[in-house]
């Protein structure tokens, strides 16, 4: 058996060393990427935990001076006389969200159905681009347009002395969240397999029957997630609401009476109070309520998406 030449042996050794070096580099890069991802998750969790802990710790201090029943059920907010009832703001937040969804949800679903099932391809692409642009418009722009155009229109056509209130806020929020709900609903409708549509036509069904009996039921989890995501944005919106709702601590269920919600009240009051005061603690408790609502809605969206994927 002939011995391998020194040159061949050296070449094999160099090739082996090169392969080992490449493997070491890939292994090191893989471990570094894993640690980077893990560190990012830990950092994100720590930041979220710190926010929740700080807001909770500061917010719960309000109950040293205010009872639970007074804070959650009293409509009287007058810090100068020791009254810290937040019922007006809590109920106002829920009421504004409800009115906004009642306006936005049917319109968003109809627009999404038109885009996904009826519109020609060129119009479909144009509408999707337009909705994406509307999502990126800053909220203060919507609020300014509402304050300068919508409120005078409401005052003129309803006879309201001011025009601020839940109606103006709900209309502004509806325009803001409509692109979000529409685009997510559009994606949910497009995820329905085309075979189901073809089966409907094969059985003699019409386009309307296909939409109502096949596509919408199949995409209900995605539509629900879109509505909840829109609700989360409506609850957390601040600047646009501040500019059109009136910011008065009173009931405004007739839609044209100035009122207030949690976000608008916090932003209007937070700069005028001492950090260690009961008023500041009450505002932090309102912020904690908003935070818990947002986290709950996000968890609900995740559950709906998992349920939709499993089905």
UniProtKB/TrEMBL annotation:
<feature type="transmembrane region" description="Helical">
    <location>
        <begin position="282"/>
        <end position="301"/>
    </location>
</feature>
<comment type="similarity">
    <text>Belongs to the binding-protein-dependent transport system permease family. CysTW subfamily.</text>
</comment>
<protein>
    <recommendedName>
        <fullName>Phosphate transport system permease protein</fullName>
    </recommendedName>
</protein>
<dbReference type="Pfam" id="PF00528">
    <property type="entry name" value="BPD_transp_1"/>
</dbReference>
<dbReference type="InterPro" id="IPR051124">
    <property type="entry name" value="Phosphate_Transport_Permease"/>
</dbReference>
<keyword id="KW-1003">Cell membrane</keyword>
<keyword id="KW-1133">Transmembrane helix</keyword>
<comment type="function">
    <text>Part of the binding-protein-dependent transport system for phosphate; probably responsible for the translocation of the substrate across the membrane.</text>
</comment>
<keyword id="KW-0812">Transmembrane</keyword>
<feature type="transmembrane region" description="Helical">
    <location>
        <begin position="166"/>
        <end position="184"/>
    </location>
</feature>
<dbReference type="InterPro" id="IPR000515">
    <property type="entry name" value="MetI-like"/>
</dbReference>
<dbReference type="InterPro" id="IPR035906">
    <property type="entry name" value="MetI-like_sf"/>
</dbReference>
<dbReference type="InterPro" id="IPR011864">
    <property type="entry name" value="Phosphate_PstC"/>
</dbReference>
<feature type="transmembrane region" description="Helical">
    <location>
        <begin position="135"/>
        <end position="154"/>
    </location>
</feature>
<keyword id="KW-0813">Transport</keyword>
<feature type="transmembrane region" description="Helical">
    <location>
        <begin position="223"/>
        <end position="245"/>
    </location>
</feature>
<keyword id="KW-0592">Phosphate transport</keyword>
<feature type="domain" description="ABC transmembrane type-1">
    <location>
        <begin position="90"/>
        <end position="301"/>
    </location>
</feature>
<keyword id="KW-0472">Membrane</keyword>
<feature type="transmembrane region" description="Helical">
    <location>
        <begin position="32"/>
        <end position="63"/>
    </location>
</feature>
<feature type="transmembrane region" description="Helical">
    <location>
        <begin position="84"/>
        <end position="115"/>
    </location>
</feature>
């Amino acid at each position: 058996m002939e011995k391998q030449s020194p040159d061949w042996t050296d070449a094999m050794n160099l090739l082996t060393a090169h392969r080992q070096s490449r493997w070491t580099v890939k292994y090191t890069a893989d471990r570094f990427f894993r640690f980077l991802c893990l560190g990012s998750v830990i950092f994100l969790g720590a930041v979220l935990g710190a926010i929740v802990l700080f807001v909770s710790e500061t917010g719960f201090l309000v109950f040293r001076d205010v009872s639970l029943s007074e804070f959650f059920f009293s409509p009287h907010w007058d810090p100068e006389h020791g009254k810290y009832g937040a019922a007006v703001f809590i109920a106002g937040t829920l009421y504004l969200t409800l009115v906004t969804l009642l306006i936005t949800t049917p319109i968003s679903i109809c627009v999404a159905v038109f885009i996904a099932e009826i519109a020609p391809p060129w119009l479909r692409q144009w509408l999707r681009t337009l909705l994406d642009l509307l999502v990126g418009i800053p909220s203060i722009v919507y609020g300014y347009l509402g304050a300068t155009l919508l409120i005078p229109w409401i005052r003129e056509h309803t006879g309201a002395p001011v025009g601020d209130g839940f109606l103006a806020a709900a209309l502004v929020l509806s325009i803001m969240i409509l692109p979000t709900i529409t685009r997510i609903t559009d994606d949910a409708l497009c995820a329905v397999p085309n075979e189901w549509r073809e089966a409907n036509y094969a059985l003699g069904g019409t386009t309307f029957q296909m939409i109502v009996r096949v596509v919408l039921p199949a995409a209900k989890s995605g539509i629900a997630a879109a509505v909840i995501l829109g609700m989360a944005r409506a609850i957390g919106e601040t600047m646009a609401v501040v500019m059109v709702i009136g910011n008065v601590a009173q009931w405004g269920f007739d839609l044209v009476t100035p009122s207030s919600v949690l976000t608008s009240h916090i932003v209007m009051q937070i700069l005028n109070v001492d950090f260690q005061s009961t008023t500041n603690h009450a505002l932090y408790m309102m912020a904690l309520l908003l935070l818990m609502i947002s986290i709950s809605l996000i968890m609900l969206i995740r559950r709906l998406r998992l349920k939709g994927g499993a089905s």
